[in-house]
Amino acid sequence: MIGQDELSLMKSAARLVNTARGGIIDEDALYHALKDRRIWGTGLDVFEQEPVRLDHSIFSLPNVVTLPL
After folding, report:
1. Tens-digit pLDDT profile for the chain (69 aa)?
2. Cα 26 → chain centroid
């Protein structure tokens, strides 16, 4: 539901929070939007694949808060 097109419409100060379902957000598109600072940050407690791998690329970004691991 939220992919590259939707993320590109968000303001650079936007924070995206997902507590619903992991598949709602395209995690690759979210990673690139965060890495390129197109959006300010994200808070996630669900992922596409659970349990989430600890080497997931999203964990390398400083503008990400995740719960639980």
Report:
1. 999 999 999 999 999 999 999 999 999 999 999 999 999 999 999 999 999 999 999 999 999 999 876
2. 8
